Amino acid sequence: MKFIFVYITNPTQKEAEKIAKHLLKKRLVACVNFFPVKSFYWWEGEILSEKEFGLIAKTKEGNYPKIVKELEKNHPYSIPCIAKIPVVFNKKYEEWLKKEVDKV
Q1: Which of 23, 40, 59, 98 has a CA that sits 20 to 30 A from residue 90's CA?
Q2: Looking at residue 61, what DSSP letter applies?
Q3: Cα Rg, the chain, nearest whole Å
Q4: What are the structural domain ranges in the chain?
């Protein structure tokens, strides 16, 4: 089984927590870390700068399409950043993660 991080940007800490809890309740992820970030990006022809909150959700690769679908329905951004990053965990953590996301 392959595991991934799913990196997701959010406009506020409150929204990041809401997204994290939603994905956890659906058992699509086993753990979520979030942290403040400063983002610079192109939007509608100009460079903008915003404070955001990045999420790193830990899950199995097979859940990625479901996560994207959930975020496209529930994320406040019209074009959310949802990035899949391959990762290798230590064996005990992998076993715990698999057990948590396979409870559905």
Answers
A1: 23
A2: G
A3: 14
A4: 3-101
pTM to 2 decimals?
A: 0.93
Residue 62 is given by DSSP the state G
Greatest alpha-carbon span in the chain: 47
Spell 76-101 as b/e; 16+ CB within 10 A means b: eeeebbbeeeeeeeeeeebeebeebb
d(CA 85, CA 43): 24
Which CATH topology does 3-101 take? Alpha-Beta Plaits (3.30.70)
Query: For 53-87, what is each residue's pLDDT tens digit?
Result: 999 999 999 999 999 999 999 999 999 999 999 99
- Reported as a single tens digit per residue, the pLDDT across 20-52 is 999 999 999 999 999 999 999 999 999 999 999
Question: Residues 10-48, buried b or exposed e (16+ Cβ, 10 A)?
Answer: beeeebbeebbebbbeeebbbebebeeeeeeeeeeeeee
